[in-house]
Amino acid sequence: MSGMSSTPDDRRFVLTLGCPDRPGIIARITSFIADFGGSIVEAGYHSDLETGWFFTRQAIKAATVPFDLDELRERFTTVAADLGPETDWQVHDSGERRRAVLLVSKDGHCLHDLLGRAASGELPATIEAVIGNHPDLAGMTEAHGIKFHYIPFPKDPAERGPAFEQMRELVDAHDPHAVVLARFMQVLPAELCEHWAGKAINIHHSFLPSFVGARPYHQAFARGVKLIGATCHYVTAELDAGPILEQDVTRIDHADTVRDMVRQGRDIERVVLARGLRWHLEGRVLVHGRRTVVFE
Amino acid sequence: MSGMSSTPDDRRFVLTLGCPDRPGIIARITSFIADFGGSIVEAGYHSDLETGWFFTRQAIKAATVPFDLDELRERFTTVAADLGPETDWQVHDSGERRRAVLLVSKDGHCLHDLLGRAASGELPATIEAVIGNHPDLAGMTEAHGIKFHYIPFPKDPAERGPAFEQMRELVDAHDPHAVVLARFMQVLPAELCEHWAGKAINIHHSFLPSFVGARPYHQAFARGVKLIGATCHYVTAELDAGPILEQDVTRIDHADTVRDMVRQGRDIERVVLARGLRWHLEGRVLVHGRRTVVFE
Amino acid sequence: MSGMSSTPDDRRFVLTLGCPDRPGIIARITSFIADFGGSIVEAGYHSDLETGWFFTRQAIKAATVPFDLDELRERFTTVAADLGPETDWQVHDSGERRRAVLLVSKDGHCLHDLLGRAASGELPATIEAVIGNHPDLAGMTEAHGIKFHYIPFPKDPAERGPAFEQMRELVDAHDPHAVVLARFMQVLPAELCEHWAGKAINIHHSFLPSFVGARPYHQAFARGVKLIGATCHYVTAELDAGPILEQDVTRIDHADTVRDMVRQGRDIERVVLARGLRWHLEGRVLVHGRRTVVFE
Amino acid sequence: MSGMSSTPDDRRFVLTLGCPDRPGIIARITSFIADFGGSIVEAGYHSDLETGWFFTRQAIKAATVPFDLDELRERFTTVAADLGPETDWQVHDSGERRRAVLLVSKDGHCLHDLLGRAASGELPATIEAVIGNHPDLAGMTEAHGIKFHYIPFPKDPAERGPAFEQMRELVDAHDPHAVVLARFMQVLPAELCEHWAGKAINIHHSFLPSFVGARPYHQAFARGVKLIGATCHYVTAELDAGPILEQDVTRIDHADTVRDMVRQGRDIERVVLARGLRWHLEGRVLVHGRRTVVFE
Lengths: 296, 296, 296, 296
Description:
Largest sheet of chain A: 7 strands, mixed
CATH class of the largest domain in chain A: Alpha Beta
Strand order of the largest sheet of chain A: 7-6-5-8-9-10-11
Pathway (chains A, B, C, D): Purine metabolism; IMP biosynthesis via de novo pathway; formate from 10-formyl-5,6,7,8-tetrahydrofolate: step 1/1
Shape of chain A: globular
CATH superfamily of the largest domain in chain A: Formyl transferase, N-terminal domain
Keywords (chains A, B, C, D): Hydrolase, One-carbon metabolism, Purine biosynthesis
Number of strands of chain A: 13
Number of domains of chain A: 2
Radius of gyration of chain A: 21 Å
Largest interface: A-B, 33 and 33 residues
Structural class of chain A: alpha/beta
Distance between the termini of chain A: 22 Å
Enzyme class (chains A, B, C, D): hydrolase
Number of helices of chain A: 8
Oligomer: homotetramer
Low-confidence stretches of chain A: 1-6
Protein name (chains A, B, C, D): Formyltetrahydrofolate deformylase
Domain ACT (chains A, B, C, D): 14-90
Order of helices and strands of chain A: EHEEHEEHEHEHEHEHEEHEE
CATH topology of the largest domain in chain A: Rossmann fold
CATH architecture of the largest domain in chain A: 3-Layer(aba) Sandwich
């Protein structure tokens, strides 16, 4: 498993930035980095011709930066100011382990998969806690030494306010970089969507925008599609309509029942969620309106 | 190219059948075939557990059938009667070349692809004629020795009745097994959908049911999906809602403009249409409600 | 999870058969089934034109069979005799849980995945035991309540005979339907390949026949391929050359290091092994020479 | 089709460069561009950690460059010199149509596809001529107004020298950017491989390195693989071993005969060749040893 664990030499300061496009931005940023001898090990750039917006992600080898993260941020402030007041940027240290909290219900395949990835060092985050509206997955979680919180949800959606409030407090106590709805199956209230905007990530078991909402495999069966899919997206107040991080599909045919689709779909859901979540945690995803720029 | 052309030995009588499921159907049909010494070279069966319907496709080596197609049909009538009054079946001779008529507009990539497949013996049909509501593709068509009919369409949809009527007559004159909307871009009137039911085939440039209607690549761009697709379906009165024969997708990313999607989408459209059309022509597709059984 | 567990009504007697092809086989078999009122819920047929061999798999609803498995076997003997002395067939009861033993080394992603599938009822087998030539995966295994056996392997391959002998005894004690090399990373001695022929299944981390042997991702990197893959195959004495059950690939590009390939490859390995193993356990795979017929 | 044709505004000067990696390269190059007000509309960077080599491709909006291509080249010479003597770079004008010559044999599917793409403006090159060692594809070529040269090849490979010499002269007369072996099926002599190094592109009908050489679909059938593929690669003296531009695969199963594979494989061959060729023509491919960097 050692091949996966990071060595000190892998440590990077990762800059992500979006701003209105104009000539000279890349030169400005990379000259700033070159001036202190920084070595860029990974660089992504995107000029969106439709919106006139520019995006970049730069991974600088930490060992080549002669000061710490705070000073890097401080120094970069001047560059960002030059790029205009709309500039949106951040720098993070890849050596600082990120934190995720998982929300689950009864279906354990995504949870099991993420626990396995975390255990083998494949997930660039620690799973701080798992919260379920059913107790079914407590055992699986605790076997990995992770705390499971069971919050029963009232049948009547109108009475779920306190349960969501409790969930919010439990989640926020970990100050997580990602709140993962790992087949949570509950619609978050609008204020929670707003509160966790940009870090709540859902896996929906269809190729969105097809088959929004409940029982997408049943919808897919009824429509007679020849491929089924899964979509990893940021959670927003509009159901299944947030910016998409990743999608994939798998082929089915007439002989596949809904149950077969459920089984085959799980293989897609696991991988799509894991990929989207990893990209999010590594600062590879920049959101712009309803679209995402993903520097894989 | 010789590898593609059929030899006399390849000739098959192809039986397709759908009926309410019950024990003994396969035995009844295959005993009928075995009794005259017929050799089944390809057999597909499907029991649809949801609808309780049974489907089969059997390709019998023609050289092992001691009588002609008409007598085979005549004899099979008794079997079909035993399977109940709802039984829907047909037998065709793979040695009898099938006929297709193509409807086009300005975009030539699907037409060009089908012309090439026909020329190289890959399409199990002759292209009898091509009809366009623009004259642009006349040259490409005629270079293959195929008649092109140009029918100008009035701007006002309300005035297109005579144009559609002329199209209907031109098409029907060939008594085609398939009427292919090869990026025709016009919505057929309900009565034509009805008239050509089960043989009018469209290629839609999205992964249906996502992005019904006009400019699906623009819709896909706006939604920020990570895969784009194409769908080959039977034409019905409800727009882009007919039974699906085939679908496929290709991966895109944030750097792809609508123009890039159009280009990449064409590679999917060509292949999806060609596959769906071939299956239709070879009697591999059985329609049941909104779903298709495809014996590949 | 209940959607995955089988109900009594799902129980099937599954017949698989291979024999020299000739007219009338399907009629003979299906008449036999129809005669006792058996309902065929899934049927696959394949006539191999190259080898002149016929293959079939029939899943008969157990509730429609008026006698038990032994009597079904007994009665079918007469049919099989009619199909010739080379006929190879078996019948199994889907209600009878199958047994698997897993061989592992240090890499836990395939083991973890199979444990999760078994726990959620997705694997049509119980995992009887896990045997490792390293102790690393004992904890993961035992957390699922499954016995882990650690067999240290001498460095010198010439001295591994006793270790393999011990492994053989441990495995055979469970009389398993499948012996799964879940990234076991050791070449089985020829006599074990022979002894477990048709039930030892390996996952190789390349798209065979490319990159046989050690460190296939390094080989793939050096060759500059644009897709990497994984292959699930039966183990035979010739390294990585056994009949293939399943393969799949994923796209990479120039920016992917060997470490990236290892990570992305794991997602393929997991799924390819799980699919191949499930098909094997459900009696969907018939081997003929170096090729497999898979009735998905 | 107009969506595909480039407008003056689309014109770009495209810089591609490879050199030993060290800090400051991106800053050096982009500052050079920023200094004259150049707008970078597409930028790709790759630091190869294994070889310590750096690669970039920058597409600069031509309208923002205040001098012509020659002066841009002249000015950039200084920058390149700063990056070290091993630096390999070029600049081309996307507005200058590129030239391709196609080599064919009897199989017309790749030729037909490329002719269609050229006709619809999808291929960023003009097809200057087609040369065949059989006359079969003359008609298809000439229907597109393109000159076809038939060069008969002696049966005895030892006697083919003059034919290859004639081919070389015909090809070189067009000074092409790409010499495309569109299912040419002949092994080029080593001196021609050398002569056309970096511009001769082949499509091989297998997923290399599997099934090198003749009749790859027969090899694939015999091995029982579950996916077949195609590979677009630069031609080198070692057979089917040149740097790979693109690959793709399609799923097959036991029911597919070699003839089915040939048919399905063609759909992959067409697309893989078209993609690889387009990337080559647009200066998106940088070769380093046996690997390619492809800035899609």
